[in-house]
Amino acid sequence: MKKIGLYFGTFNPIHIGHLIIANHIAEHTDIDELWLVITPHNPFKKKKTLLEDHHRLELVRRACEGYEKLKPSAIEFKLPQPNYTVNTLAHLTDTYPKYKFSLIMGEDNLKSFHKWKNYEIILQNHDIYVYPRIANGEVDALFSKHPKIHHIDAPIMEISSTSIRKSIKEGKNIMPLLPEAVWKYIDEMNFYRK
């Protein structure tokens, strides 16, 4: 059975931190393929800094070029909004019965995982791969030694899409933080400058 890791994010924009984590997990765990799932624009939230869904998908597509195990996924674009991870996992499991899906999340998300909708169902049916993040607070004891939760010794990446957008707006050179093809698209399309 093919093991697919799901790495959710707005990817606004996708940067080398995302790629380093995704590639590390794809190369250093038993996951066969890692899908970068672009979170759709919430129709109830007007966020002017959030690029349209199809542009963020294009950025992720360009970022994944040359990485055999990394794939962009627009699966959540087709699901009713607002969407919950438990629903996406159910949809994927029904759509791809021969695949086994796991979640990829930062340690900061694990700290609030008990607040997720139907988190018990997620844990019952899916493995979770957790990468380290610098963050305050404690991980719930329930999750620290759970057999379905795997802590991955991945590099700690403290690059933020927010600071990248701010730097672009201020006219700063942020090229080292983005895959070249991603930077070219952002530059050509004049994104984040206004």
Report on the architecture of this protein.
This protein is of the alpha/beta class. It has one domain (2-162): Rossmann fold (3-Layer(aba) Sandwich), CATH 3.40.50.620. The protein is 36% helix and 17% strand. The protein has eight helices and six strands. It has helices at residues 16-28, 53-64, 85-95, 107-110, 119-125, 141-144, 161-169, 180-189; strands at 2-9, 33-38, 70-73, 99-106, 128-131, 149-151. Strands 3-2-1-4-5-6 form a six-stranded parallel β-sheet, with helices on both faces. The longest helix has 13 residues, at 16-28. The radius of gyration is 17 Å and the shape is globular.
CATH level-two architecture: 3-Layer(aba) Sandwich
Query: Main sheet?
Result: 6 strands, parallel
Briefly note the CATH topology name.
Answer: Rossmann fold
Task: List the uncertain runs.
Answer: none
Order of helices and strands: EHEHEHEHHEHEHH
Measured by DSSP, the beta-strand proportion falls in: 15-25%
Structural class category: alpha/beta
Structural shape = globular
Q: How are the strands of the largest sheet arranged? A: 3-2-1-4-5-6
Tell me the name of the CATH homologous superfamily: HUPs
CATH class: Alpha Beta
Radius of gyration: 17 Å
- Whole-number count of domains: 1
Distance between the termini: 47 Å
Average pLDDT taken over every residue? 93
Number of strands: 6
Helical residue percent?
25-40%
Salient structural properties:
six-stranded parallel sheet; single chain; Rossmann fold; 36% helix; globular; 194 residues; alpha/beta
